[in-house]
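The records we work with from here on pair a chain with its fold. These numbers are not coordinates but entries in a learned vocabulary of local backbone shapes. To see the layout at work, look at the sequence and tokens printed below.

. . .
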Amino acid sequence: MSLLTRMFFACVLAGVAAIGGGCTIGPYGSPIPPSSMQAAAKSHPDARFFDGQSGEKLHNRDVFEKVKRADVVVFGELHGHPVGLPVAAAIWEDMLRVRDRDETPALLLEFFERDQQLAIDEYLGGMIDKETFIKDAGRSASNFPDAHQAMFNATKEAGGVVIAANAPRRYVRLARTEGYDRLRAMSPAQQATFELPPTEHGPEAYRARFVEIMGGMRSASGSGKEGASEPRPGMSVMDFLRAQLVWDATMADSVADALKAGHEPVALVIGRFHVGFDGATVEYIRRTRPGADVLTIVIVDSWSDELAEEDRGRGDIVIYAGPIDRGEPAGASESED
């Protein structure tokens, strides 16, 4: 990265005003990056950034150093959050603006499955228009929100690649209902669309959190659930964990492939449960690319003037973006993906 690029990046994160529009700085020195999504970020000026380990309020130089060193940035978002998503988009757009021009960025999205990669490539290559792309890739307001579109379009304009990071849902469903042996018996072409985890039970701490959350859902509703899938009678928590781990392993493998291909910067946008507290996706990235510097940025849907103890270790950078319901008391909301 050139000296000029580094100086510009420092300006972005410092919030130094510049002619034609500059950076803004939130309370406590928290950077709010400028971009086409700046108005959305400004709509929540109380968003605060903290070091997820030390609890230190992050200032421009701290954030600059963390992002500068990272080989891959993993955004742990809350799907549908009106501020968290735009802030993530703003950070990504700024990363694109200050990259070296000989670098080819890669954006990986959880909401796109590997068998939809052809539609992405045809759209990026100008072979199909947006309307055709939306149809061919099965996009909707729920699986292609405005902030994701902003990240997608910014990557396209920067000459980067967008990667469908996830496994097709039909195979994830088979992992839950029939187990991994059913997937191992598939053809090489089918197996290229997913990655199986090293073990059926996943990392211990991750498994414990998953079981706790699923147990709470079952207690409340009499059943469990996996993402948007409907629970079926006779399914156990461990059945759903198998499916979850296919998501984690496949997304981690997609990141590893992007790094091997030499893309930079690289960003993965997924639900925060996969990321927080060194979730399985992050652990699998580090397992497959042990030398990579992985930076996690996790959105929290509450307010806080300091890093809450329950959020220590949730991510390398923790962003308090407030509850989705603006009238909700601080700390009252704790939704997970």
User: Anything to note?
Assistant: The CA atoms of residues 63 and 316 lie 10 Å apart. The beta strands are 24-25, 31-32, 48-51, 72-77, 106-113, 161-166, 266-271, 294-300, 317-320. Residues 237-260 form the longest helix (24 residues).
